[in-house]
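Structure Section — protein described below
Tokens — whole-number codes for backbone shape
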Amino acid sequence: MYSAQVLCRSRTSVEYSHASCRVFATVDIAAVANMSFDCIMCGLCAARCPAEEAQYNIAILARRLYGRYLAVRSAHLEDRLQEIQTGKYDEEIAELKQLSIEELKERYKARDIEPK
């Protein structure tokens, strides 16, 4: 027997899933990604869906499509990618590759966790 709280959550999940399917059908990926933000991928919506849709998979797809094609890329990410492509860190990476495991562990422990 289900508790009232579980049934309430299930009903909310089903309402969310039907709404997300309708929105996804109209190709509003940003809206589906936004609606699925609170989803914990529990599968209750898929278990109760009469269309046998796995809404959590639809939500993952929408999030990935949004992140790849619709989200604005941050300027600092673009700057860092440019630094990597120009070879700014090549010497440091080569140095780290030559260290032993013990030396790497010591450097890791000695790092600045919070910059001042």
Summary: The CA atoms of residues 19 and 32 lie 9 Å apart.
